[in-house]
Amino acid sequence: MKLPSHYFRFSAQTTLRLSRIAIVALWGGYFGKFFLQTDRPGLLILLRVCLVVGTILSILLFVSAHSFVGSAFDHHIYERELTLRNRAYFKTIQCGMIGLIAHFFGIEIAEHQGISLVPNVYQNFGLCLFFTTLIVPAWYLARWHVANSDA
C-alpha cells in the first residue's frame, strides 16, 4: 500500500491514544453540556475546550495512515486490509446506531423528567456523532494492528 504524502504517519499505539482522547473529549463535552443545568461560565468554557480538542484530534486522525486504509479504494489495499476495513465499517455503523438509539432514549427520559432541550443539544450531538464516525474505522484498524503485532 502506497500512502500519499499528505497523510500523518501515526503509529498504531499513537492512533489508539489519540482516538481515545478525542472520543472522551467529544462525548465528555457533549454530556457535560447536556447535563449542565446552571449557568457556570468556567465549566462551560472547559466543556467547549473539550469539544474543540476532540474535533481537532478527530480531523488529525481522519488524515492518518489508519484512516487511509479505512477510506481507500479497493484496488489500493491488499485483500487482508480490505477485510479488516469492511469489519471496521461494520463496527462504525454499529457504534453510530447505538449512539442514535441512546440519544433518542435520552431525549425521552429528559422529556419525562421535565428537562427541556434546546436546539444546541441536537447540534452538539450531531457534531459528536459525525466526528466519532470519522475516527472509529481508524481506531478499529489500529486496535487490530496492535493486537496482531503483539501476538
Describe what this molecule looks like in 3D:
- The chain is an all-alpha fold and 151 residues long.
- It has one domain.
- The chain is 79% helix and 0% strand.
- It is built from five helices and no strands.
- Helix 2 packs across helix 5, helix 3 packs across helix 5 and helix 4 packs antiparallel against helix 5.
- It is elongated and about 55 Å long.
- The model has no long low-confidence stretch (mean pLDDT 83).
| Quaternary status | single chain
Strand content: under 5%
Instruction: Give the helices and strands as they follow along the chain.
Output: HHHHH
- Integer-rounded radius of gyration: 17 Å
Kindly report the average pLDDT value.
83
Helix count from the secondary structure assignment: 5
Show unreliable segments: none
Measured distance between first and last alpha carbons: 23 Å
The figure for the number of domains is 1
Summary keywords:
0% strand, 79% helix, single chain, 5 helices, mainly alpha, 151 residues
Topology (elements, then pairings):
Layout: H1 12-35, H2 41-62, H3 65-71, H4 79-112, H5 119-150
Helix pairs in contact: 1-2, 1-5, 2-5, 3-5, 4-5
Short description:
It is built from five helices and no strands.
